[in-house]
């Protein structure tokens, strides 16, 4: 059964496995020594072995992401701020405590990243993406990605994700989802505000440049930001914010 499902596109695979996966996640361990790695095997059907991601393009790596970020995303799916029915079905009956245990499990995985694919985007597009990521666009009130996601773009503990090591298709789809309201976060939803200021060509440039960058080291998130965040963002309480924001 599992081998047949692995050969299906992951969107169909996720739908077909939804009930089985929910049972696997929610059921008590069969043995007293069964660990979380066994309990979250359902997650790896789409997110790849150990949460490393797969070539499908729309299912991101979850291994090594900050635990607070992963927990927030699981809660966002469960509470309807993010819309993907198979994910919502998998976790709708799981407690917040268990979701945080799952997040902690994947966050603790220290696995190398593969080299990035060679970008097919024109050099001018990549340069535009680099400029937006590193410097933003002050005239349109678009902050630089590095201001929140860290100078190395590997995220910031405990709740800001890295932007490297993600497929271009996934980055495009998530920025589009924020702009259209299909993806939301705890208020104030700073990413939605930023995404709505990006033109389609900006999104294409940013995603192309980010997807083409190697991940430094194992992609460990930074312990802190070098300065204040440019906007207030829900789910990252405790981080300094620029005055007037």
Overall pLDDT confidence: 86
Radius of gyration computed on alpha carbons: 18 Å
Number of domains: 2
Helix-strand makeup class:
mainly alpha
Distance, first to last CA:
52 Å
CATH superfamily of the largest domain: Cytochrome c-like domain
Q: What's the CATH architecture of the largest domain?
A: Orthogonal Bundle
Short description, anyone?
The chain is mainly alpha-helical. It has helices at 2-6, 10-26, 36-39, 44-47, 67-78, 85-91, 96-107, 123-135, 146-149, 168-180, 190-197, 200-211.
What does this structure look like?
By secondary structure, this protein is mostly helical. The protein has 2 domains: 2-107, Cytochrome Bc1 Complex, Chain D, domain 2 (Orthogonal Bundle); 123-211, Cytochrome c-like domain (Cytochrome Bc1 Complex, Chain D, domain 2), CATH 1.10.760.10. 45% of the residues lie in helices and 0% in strands. It is built from 12 helices and no strands. It has helices spanning 2-6, 10-26, 36-39, 44-47, 67-78, 85-91, 96-107, 123-135, 146-149, 168-180, 190-197, 200-211. α5 (67-78) runs antiparallel to α7 (96-107) and α10 packs across α11.
């Amino acid at each position: 059964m599992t081998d047949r499902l692995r050969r299906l596109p992951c969107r169909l695979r996720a739908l077909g496995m939804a009930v089985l996966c929910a049972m696997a996640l929610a059921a008590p361990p069969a043995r007293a020594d069964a660990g979380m790695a066994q309990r979250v095997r359902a997650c790896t059907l789409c997110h790849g072995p150990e949460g490393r991601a797969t070539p499908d393009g729309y299912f991101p790596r979850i291994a090594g992401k900050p635990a607070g970020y992963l927990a927030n995303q699981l809660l966002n799916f469960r509470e309807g701020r993010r819309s993907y029915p198979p994910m919502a079905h998998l976790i709708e009956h799981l407690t917040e405590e268990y979701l945080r245990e799952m997040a902690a499990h994947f966050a603790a995985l220290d696995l190398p990243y593969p080299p990035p694919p060679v970008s097919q985007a024109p050099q001018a597009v990549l340069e535009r993406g680099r400029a937006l990521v590193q410097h933003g666009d002050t005239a349109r009130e678009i902050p630089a990605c590095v201001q929140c996601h860290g100078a190395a773009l590997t995220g910031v503990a405990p709740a800001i994700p890295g932007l490297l090591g993600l497929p271009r298709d996934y980055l495009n789809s998530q920025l589009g989802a924020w702009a259209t309201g299909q993806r939301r976060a705890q208020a104030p939803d700073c990413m939605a505000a930023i995404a709505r200021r990006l033109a389609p060509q900006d999104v294409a440039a940013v995603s192309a440049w980010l997807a083409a960058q190697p991940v430094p080291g194992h992609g460990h998130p930074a312990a802190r930001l070098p300065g204040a965040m440019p906007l207030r963002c829900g789910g990252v309480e405790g981080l300094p914010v620029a005055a007037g924001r």
